[in-house]
Structure prediction request, 378 residues.
Amino acid sequence: MARTPTRDVIMSAAVSVAAQHGISGSSMDEIAEQAHVAKGSLYYHFPSKDAIFENVLQAGFDRLADAIRDARSATEAGAALRAVTEATLAVLQQNPARAKIVVSEMFRTDRPWGDAIAPARASIVVLYRDVLRDAALQSGGTPAAEAITETAGAAFFGAIAGAGLEWLLFHPDQPIGAVADQVLLLARC
Amino acid sequence: MARTPTRDVIMSAAVSVAAQHGISGSSMDEIAEQAHVAKGSLYYHFPSKDAIFENVLQAGFDRLADAIRDARSATEAGAALRAVTEATLAVLQQNPARAKIVVSEMFRTDRPWGDAIAPARASIVVLYRDVLRDAALQSGGTPAAEAITETAGAAFFGAIAGAGLEWLLFHPDQPIGAVADQVLLLARC
DNA sequence: GTCTATACGCAGATAGAC
DNA sequence: GTCTATCTGCGTATAGAC
Prediction:
């Protein structure tokens, strides 16, 4: 079996540690231990602790964006809302540790790496907004697509994230479809 | 004017500092500076840093729960969904610094004070669930109220929180009613 | 590329005067 | 109740051998 590059091992370890203690609460000592490398080696692959988590978040946002795009394009228009919801939940489920970090960093603007990841973050909100716009057009144009803003996109993301974390943290035995039902239930009240 | 008790000054300062740097990133030195007291005085009013934030979060959760209950009971059944949404947004807007902390701690289970605030957190999710159940009964019993679980409550909270933070952080000029519209738009797609 | 050893500052917490 | 002074450990980051 091909050996995983040390750089990736370090990033995985960082995700795992940060899921437990938060990013600020994660020490380079613990990341090194979890990655089975010496602390000094971390600084060969990354210039600083901040750089590690900048890369972690960038990768997490990119993966989420890819999942949304895939679900949106691989689905007939009428079912896009459910497809995107389930695709997002699947990404969260696939790596719950990373999910906790990505979700909790989605609305933090005060990080050293804030400027670097802002575009990736913003594009995710826009993607969710566009999915909602598609659905509005599909259902006869009410509300008007232009009336749907990034704020609604953030609400959609928040709904999936809230349900997803409740699921993974407190009711992990629920099937993913049932969780999606609870999210989409907001769309029917 | 009556002087604010030092204990409250410290808690306000802690909120303000944590909104900028996160809880782990907040130092007792900076909290003391912001509160205009010496660091030693913090330890007269609280036994530890953790204790300060346990109290901050408990108070934040309690205030949110009160707002939800008030909005729910002061409204005729048909408008409860909007009333609760706007009431929640108003709480966030009234103290954005506290809002950031409360929202970001809603789905963290790994804190020293986790057990202490878990009941308050859980009761908020249940409150949102019950508001959704009310709305389902109101609109003719579809879906069945029993089919609406805490997961939907968490989704509802997440939707409001996501929209609210997007609003306060990136589009603070929007009127609160417009933000509520974007949240409730999820309910109409 | 990976290691060990170490420099250096900062954070949480305590002691004790006033 | 509030202050100043101080202890102590931990955390990031660097130096340099292998």
